[in-house]
Amino acid sequence: KMDKEIHDASLDYRIYYNNLTPIIYTKIYEDTIILSIRFLIHPKRQRGIESNIYEQILEKFNDEGIIIK
What pLDDT does residue 36 have? Predict the structure, then answer.
């Protein structure tokens, strides 16, 4: 469904995506690891989905004994 919507929108707007699957970019800066996630979602669902992702990451860190300062 997302493929079709992106294709339809690209006919009216300058939207170019070759890969619609989610991707995580990793960057190390000083003593910090920065994770950037790129994924396509409906704008009205963004806040809930982002919150869910953050909660799952924090739960996994907790399960593994990783302490965040």
Answer: 92
